[in-house]
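Might I ask for a little of your time on a matter of protein folding? The record follows directly beneath this note:
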Amino acid sequence: MSTAHSAREAVLGRVRSALAGTERTPLADIPRDYRIARPAADLVGLFCERVADYRATVERVEPTGLTAAIAAAAKAVGARRVLVPSGAPQAWYDALRPEFAQVDDGEGIDTAGLDQIDAVITTAVVGIASTGTIVLDHGPGQGRRAVTLVPDVHICVVEESQIADDVPAALRRLDPNRPMTFISGPSATSDIELNRVEGVHGPRTLHVLVTADLGSRLQTRSA
């Protein structure tokens, strides 16, 4: 018998001796609420804090100031050509169009064309407070996956009611049959000599605008 095996048997023997005569609780009777309920006192605040930890810019804005905040975020990075996917609020498209050289819904743009877009502005489906992650399922207002990976800047609007506490809570809100993109800060890698380089596999800049629920107050734009 090897020394390692002997040591293992000795440890297990001590455990069995310590447990001898003790009453064991059936696994089914052990409370496991911690697995599905770990609410934070301030989900929105925690989400904003964790998003900022990833070197993303995050702002909390009132719905009435959202359109102005979107335009300001695009101007701050010097964007001139902006993509707003169909299904986003019509007001965003209307307000941006006079300000920028090109505002497009991205429906007919190929990858080479997307490379000429400075910034994409999208909605989201879920935000995860504990990890600062944004999830897109590429439904209305989010565009196909390429439109959020090719442009250098991604401005994303997250409604407060979309913020879940943790990953399991977020997954319960998602449709597993839809394509999903999980975004935790700007695209970055440290593969080469541990030097962090941003913008390698996706946007170099992520700007998150957190707002109260928009509901049906804003008419969406069709393709």
Notes: Residues 24 and 30 are 11 Å apart (CA to CA). The mean pLDDT is 83. The two ends are 72 Å apart (CA to CA). The first helix runs from residue 3 to 19.
